Amino acid sequence: MPLSVDDGAIEAARSGGAGVDRLIAAVWPEAYRIAFGVLRDRGLAEDAAQEACASIARGLPSLKNTAAFSTWSYKIIVNRAISAARARPRTLTLDSSIESGVHVDRTVAVDLSNALSRLSVVQRAAVILHYYAGLNSREIAAATGVTSATVRFHLMLARRALRKALSSDDACGNQSVEEAATDAR
To answer: Is CATH 1.10.4200.10 correct for 1-90?
Structure first.
């Protein structure tokens, strides 16, 4: 579910007041979802998403092209999540299930969550932005500040690692990694 905010909401937020509150309310669910996907910890994700939303609100006056809002926001969100992951490395628990509105087999969600936690922070960010946010490699590259080729490389490595982790746990049976990630949304 890509982040989408109309130009009118961005302009209203630039003038301050309730416009900022409405914009942050629109951005918050996706910010939290992306931060949680990267961090795999609810508290850290909430902190990172709050910091990202504050940065987005503060940075609105400097945003020249409102059409770039989505990519610009993803970049802020991912950078905050990666910074939080690097600043406070934590042990990830099996209880960190995939947070979404879709009901899935709890075993698959826990196995996928555990497999995701084994990825590097950069690989996890690429997977979350691709499979959960629906961004393509060009959009992920713009959001993370690396090239599209680097994004595709990280996705390839992440898929291999996930495939190995999920097949060794025999979590998904014949289901592909991509199907498991899509089902866990």
So the answer is: no
| pTM of the predicted model over 0.70 | no
25-61, pLDDT tens digit by residue? 999 999 999 999 999 889 999 999 999 999 999 999 9
State both tokens at 113: 């969550």
Q: Which of 119, 38, 122 is nearest to 81 (CA)?
A: 38
The secondary structure of 30-54 as a DSSP string is HHHHHHHHHH--HHHHHHHHHHHHH
Mean of all residue pLDDT scores within the chain = 80
Q: Tell me what the mean pLDDT of segment 123-142 comes to.
A: 90
Domain with CATH 1.10.10.10 in the chain: 93-185
